[in-house]
Amino acid sequence: MATNGPGAQYTFCTTYDAATRAAQVLSASSTIILHCQGRDLGLPDGELSIIALSDPAASEVFLLDVLLLCDKHNPALAPLFSLLERPDITKLVWDGRTYLLEIADTYGVLLQGVIDLQLVEVSTRGKKSEKNLRAQHTMRYFKSVMKDIRNNPRLLDGIHRLLGLDSCAANLRVINALGGKDPAVTNLHRTDGGSMWLHRPLPAMLLDYAAHDIWLISRVADVLLPRVSVEQLREASARYMRVYPTREAKEAHVPLELSKFVPLDVVDAPLPGAPRYYCARCERTLSLSCFGTRQTPTEEAEGDSDTPVNVCSTVLTGPAFQRWTVCHLCVLIACRNLEVQTGPWEWTPLL
Ligand SMILES: [Zn+2]
């Protein structure tokens, strides 16, 4: 067992027996923290390196070497797989968008019972008009299109720019200036693309980093979880985990800057059975509330190119109505980045 920064310790599990013991210790808790490290997780060349698990207080942290423990048929891993699959054991994660896919690809295990603290953070920000940093985080990104937003404040409805774990911890004041992530490792992430996670033996600096992330998640959870009804966020977390059903989907979304935002139809559940519509930019199929809608204009008004994209939460169908072919989030990002349109962005009948 090695020490790790402010209060946390970890056990590096490099044998199947050690993985079994880790699962036995953690099975005493109905809530565990889960965090994954690896190269380009969720992308076509993505590969898991470490699965980090702990109790909610991060007093027992286990770092499982996935590259060494790669035989998914080894019975010693069964208790671990059970922990991951059981919906009644809550897994607290920070940004688990790639976990479902990576864990399924590596071990053939379906991760369930997840509460994503990134969504908890978003849902506890308060109104966008509030003057604190978290509440203003989305608005600041769209400063260059603020005139459009002021004309139609509802353009930002349901749009949330994500915070990183470190930034969130700093904003919540659960860490001081020296308590954040190791800058040497975050720099390596930027320059190396995460390939360092595939080196063996894994440097102590990376093990410390993985354990420290668990400690950060624990501290953030301590502050945020009492502020929400956790049960309400289970389904949203499950939707969040499914936004990248394939590695290609994430690869397509990164250059569009969509990975910086909570995807639409995640925090607010789409109405069951309601029709879904294709966005020509992000290529997701979304509920109608994610698109601008309007009444079909008369022939004389048809040429009016300045017609604003309206946000409308009311379900409108039939030829008397039209929707924009690109979702609200895509419209805002594309306008902010002065993006050249590559597809047909226009009004289309709501049939
Ligand atoms: Zn879109």
TrEMBL record:
It comes from the Eukaryota. Gene3D superfamilies: Ribonuclease H-like superfamily/Ribonuclease H. SUPFAM superfamilies: Ribonuclease H-like. GO terms for molecular function: nucleic acid binding. This is 3'-5' exonuclease domain-containing protein.
